[in-house]
Amino acid sequence: MPSRDTNVHTGHPRTRTEIATEWCVWHVGELTGVALPTVLAATVNGWFGLLSGLVAAGWAANEVRLARARNQITAERQRRALTAVGADDTDTTENAAAEGVGQAGTGEKGASA
Predict the structure, then answer these.
(1) Which helix (H) or strand (E) covers residue 50, if one does?
(2) Alpha-carbon distances, residue 106 vs 12, 38, 56, 92, 98 (angstroms)
(3) Contact criterion met (CB below 8 Å) for 5 and 19
(4) Keywords in UniProt for this one (predicted)?
(5) In degrees rounded to 5, what are phi and psi of residue 44?
(6) Mean pLDDT for all residues in the chain
(7) Using an 8 Å Cβ cutoff, are 2 and 11 in contact?
């Protein structure tokens, strides 16, 4: 099954040019929303720069929102994977803490000594 790093048609690793081209295609709306008002601000009226700034701020806010959602999903997947692994094994950390192994003041030096 092809991944994001392989070309769907050839199965070979994608080049940097292919990755950059795909990014531009997916973000053509945002790029146009920033570039067009910038050109208009430079040629027609400087107030178009405000529109370009608003579009850029909206784009940035959306990217931050998407990154946070992506990080939350990744963290949830990792937590589930760790929970699934931990459910099969006995939790030696909690058992050791309950028995007082390696705790300060018990007279044991622990692993670092």
Answers:
(1) helix 48-88
(2) 59, 69, 59, 18, 13
(3) no
(4) Membrane, Transmembrane, Transmembrane helix
(5) -105, -65
(6) 78
(7) yes
- Each domain of the chain, given as residue ranges in start order, spans 16-85
Q: Is 93 helix (H, G, I), strand (E, B) or coil?
A: helix
C-alpha dihedral sign at 37, 43, 47, 49? positive
| Confidence category of residue 113, pLDDT binned at 50, 70, 90 | very low
How far is it between the farthest Cα atoms of the chain?
79
The amino acid at residue 71 is N
Instruction: Report the helix count and the strand count for the chain, using DSSP H and E.
Output: 4, 0
CA distances from 68 to 34, 60, 75, 80, 105 (A): 23, 12, 10, 18, 42
pTM score > 0.70 for this model?
no
Tokens representing 61?
A: 């806010």
Give the per-residue pLDDT at 102: 52
- What pLDDT digit, counting tens, does each position of 30-76 carry? 889 899 999 999 999 989 999 999 999 998 999 999 999 999 999 88
User: In this structure, how many other beta carbons lie within 10 angstroms of the beta carbon of residue 53?
Assistant: 14
**Rounded-to-integer distance, Cα 62 and Cα 54, Å:** 12
